[in-house]
Amino acid sequence: xxxxxxxxxxxxxxxxxxxxxxxxxxxxxxxxxxxxxxxxxxxxxxxxxxxxxxxxxxxxxxxxxxxxxxxxxxxxxxxxxxxxxxxxxxxxxxxxxxxxxxxxxxxxxxxxxxxxxxxxxxxxxxxxxxxxxxxxxxxxxxxxxxxxxx
Amino acid sequence: xxxxxxxxxxxxxxxxxxxxxxxxxxxxxxxxxxxxxxxxxxxxxxxxxxxxxxxxxxxxxxxxxxxxxxxxxxxxxxxxxxxxxxxxxxxxxxxxxxxxxxxxxxxxxxxxxxxxxxxxxxxxxxxxxxxxxxxxxxxxxxxxxxxxxxxxxxxxxxxxxxxxxxxxxxxxxxxxxxxxxxxxxxxxxxxxxxxxxxxxxxxxxxxxxxxxxxxxxxxxxxxxxxxxxxxxxxxxxxxxxxxxxxxxxxxxxxxxxxxxxxxxxxxxxxxxxxxxxxxxxxxxxxxxxxxxxxxxxxxxxxxxxxxxxxxxxxxxxxxxxxxxxxxxxxxxxxxxxxxxxxxxxxxxxxxxxxxxxxxxxxxxxxxxxxxxxxxxxxxxxxxxxxxxxxxxxxxxxxxxxxxxxxxxxxxxxxxxxxxxxxxxxxxxxxxxxxxxxxxxxxxxxxxxxxxxxxxxxxxxxxxxxxxxxxxxxxxxxxxxxxxxxxxxxxxxxxxxxxxxxxxxxxxxxxxxxxxxxxxxxxxxxxxxxxxxxxxxxxxxxxxxxxxxxxxxxxxxxxxxxxxxxxxxxxxxxxxxxxxxxxxxxxxxxxxxxxxxxxxxxxxxxxxxxxxxxxxxxxxxxxxxxxxxxxxxx
Amino acid sequence: xxxxxxxxxxxxxxxxxxxxxxxxxxxxxxxxxxxxxxxxxxxxxxxxxxxxxxxxxxxxxxxxxxxxxxxxxxxxxxxxxxxxxxxxxxxxxxxxxxxxxxxxxxxxxxxxxxxxxxxxxxxxxxxxxxxxxxxxxxxxxxxxxxxxxxxxxxxxxxxxxxxxxxxxxxxxxxxxxxxxxxxxxxxxxxxxxxxxxxxxxxxxxxxxxxxxxxxxxxxxxxxxxxxxxxxxxxxxxxxxxxxxxxxxxxxxxxxxxxxxxxxxxxxxxxxxxxxxxxxxxxxx
Lengths: 150, 633, 284
Hints:
heterotrimer; A: alpha/beta; Rossmann fold; 7 strands; about 15% strand; C: mainly alpha; 11 helices; about 75% helix; about 0% strand; globular
């Protein structure tokens, strides 16, 4: 009964990315990469999503939004930080308004660095995330909270 | 038949007592006592008369007839006086014409026309008597706490509650008179009394608006009265019979002219287009009045008369046009109801629409159609009275009758909210009552001549109906931003009456196979010699659905546990518990949700005007069809 | 009335409907030059949804969705057991109203607008469905699906207008472009996911399964037009569904106003012509 891995639905949010990574995310949906092969659907709705794919860095404007989207997702859920900005803040790390990578606000499960990330990397990252998702599902099923508390 | 006399006289006696007594708990108790007595008596009538078919009652005409003529003249004088006082020339003119016609009939022809049976009771009048006796008295009981709150909240309105309850009970008596009269001139007298009651009650608050609307209602009904009086006169001139049973039995060749004239009166009474405006205006009256007169009983008198004449109308040109007036009214009024956010206006338009459906059935007049029409009358009376009273209760607590202000009613006033949901479901959802009758109506339409036109009207009309009821229901069950339970402020008596009516809505939906078997099928069989009914298997399926609907709420017990509650998705924007959020430029805003009203599609003015034009033409055609009487099949 | 068919429908329809949905997705992908998900993907999706956490906005929303599923299955079962077509239509309306109420109960801006639009859809297609039932009756003299299916002549010849009108409406019923205004199978939509926005986990799974039931029921409804020859009926229904997939991929979503107006116009003209012609030249 591990359907979790076979039907990962995604919500994609652009934190404060330059759109480079986001265009690569969209490229994954095109016939060339066609992530729907893996049952991946870009839902655009956190309540339906299993994987939070987030690009860009955290700043004052988007911090609450990122947290809100994450909280709106039902368990089990994983976060994939796409691009170096989402991983660490990237070149914007030292900006006055930038707090850093996504892990400043929400627990990140998979880091996919790159500027921008290549579609192959994205797919690789999401597939890695599936393993984490499955782990969390198993943990949830055994009665433990899905998130390993820090 | 002493029970008929009791039903006619008991409300009158109660009315007089209520007029004499001052505002005091004793009077409140008298209202309740009288209500219980009347309801009990109408149930007794059901128990004793349901299996006896049509029973005609010999009742001496002389003294009663004279009293009625005298009273009719008094009523006319009263209307004239009011017309002069408020300078309403149209009302004066109509009253004069009508009284002239009536007196002409009374003094020239009436002495030569002997009515053997003045009263009667059959299955249809039992149904009507139950509606008047049970629902009507329940509304009277509800009116006690309602009017108390009403007067407390509207200090500027003079306290005329003695008059109010007096008229209310006189009205009940007159309604019983209408459904038990076999003598048409008696029927007409009671008919006029209800017009007068409606006139007085609409003007209760005596504001300019109320007075104007009460005169509007009066004029429209007097116009119908002129038609009725003309019918009597025609009967007198042609030396026809004045007895309802004989007239209906005589068939179209003899009875078509009076049937058409009385149908015209019925169209005005039941506020069909082009006369609907008076019913909308009547919504200024206190809500129990709207519930009693303007949805569950008085407007039903109009359709009652038309349904009574359905066998005569069936297959005739005038009948076809009467039916089409109803069909067009159904479509137009349902469409307009979509655009209304005032709860009472929505209910009023829906009432007009459903009466339209009854009229359509009656105009078609086949055995199936009559069966469907009576079903519609029953289910509509029950559900609509519940809804009106529910709106009245809500209005007193939230101080608004706007549907948008009822958002989250299920949380704010759980019991009232649920009862209103039941009422609305009763109006349009399977397997509740109205849907059963709509189903019957559809079948009846298919078999009728010109049925395709009726089919189109009902298909589009019911689609629109679904829209406006469902969106209202949706608002009631939506989560309010601030959920404060204010139900404890509702008077207990109002809750009891609402609960009773809600039970009735569910009850008649469950019991309709038996209602049909005991009352409707014998009635239809008596008239047409044919039986209309739903197939046995369909009845079982309906009951199965009903059972499922009733059991499903139990699933809430399961869903109550182990759920992680989240806020609604607001595009990622964090919101506070009462749904405030930071909008653009950091300005704090509150989430607000509003229904669609499709003003551009079904705008009230435009649709109403179109409906009036079409139906006015149809009415002209209806009279024109008399020339070619009976030539249509 | 055949209880066996009803039970068979309740058990088999989700399987068939899910498979159809899978084939649909595969074909859609192929039309777009993609490989597409496995054919069993819809089952994986629902399986996944059942494994998710139970999340709600309002507790009552689950109740309404459960009722929606039950009544969709009920109306389909009634249809396949040969019951009264009008009753089937009414049960279906009830089901959709329940779904709408679930969306209202959740009270988010997106589900609220989705609910309003779903009601507009209901208002748009209801007349056509009622008139189709009436058309079947005028043609065959019975509302019972058993009798309609046993009608010896091809109904498509008697009811071409009704057929085209119903096909026009089918796009909306299947939630396909250009009429997928209330919620959509496609990724992003201007109102997020409309009606289903606030449903997640098993609740969303129920909505999916209900949709499978409905797909099978709808195809069954079209079967009736060709019921005199099962082989032709099967081919016709398959072609219809393929056409729907093609329309879905070839058109863009229209505004609700256009959807309502065009569907009503098609309904009025086609069904009126068809029914009048039928009543005066044949039938009954």
